Amino acid sequence: MFTQVTKGIKVSVETTFEGTFFKNYKMHYAFGYTITIENLSRDIVQLTARHWDIYDALKDIETIDGEGVIGRKPVIKPGKSHTYSSGCLLASPIGAMHGYYHMVNLATTEEFEVEIPAFKFAAPFAIN
């Protein structure tokens, strides 16, 4: 598990290898990840946007920006958490992701970024 705390917001990531398949006559490697965002602060916060840099050993870095996560902009109360799962396809069996969430403190209206720890993807057969 990969974990990082920024401004009282703890982000934890677990990854899984989902398998391989052919798409457009090329082999692709499917990876999943589950992220838990825990509010360790005293204020209510809302996740409004995300930024990802996806590293694939056989391709250039892909950058993705978007609103919320999985179609939601969760509000997280102190002591509570929000968990979601997603995934990505890589052209190689090895890669990584890193990014940040754009958050708003609903008590003060302060906007801030919460780092998502860099996490790695590796198909089991690629690391033996």
UniProtKB/TrEMBL annotation:
It holds the Pfam family DUF525. It comes from the Bacteria. Residues 3-128 form the ApaG domain. NCBIfam families: PRK05461.1. This is Co2+/Mg2+ efflux protein ApaG. It comes from Flagellimonas iocasae. The lineage of its organism: Bacteria, Pseudomonadati, Bacteroidota, Flavobacteriia, Flavobacteriales.
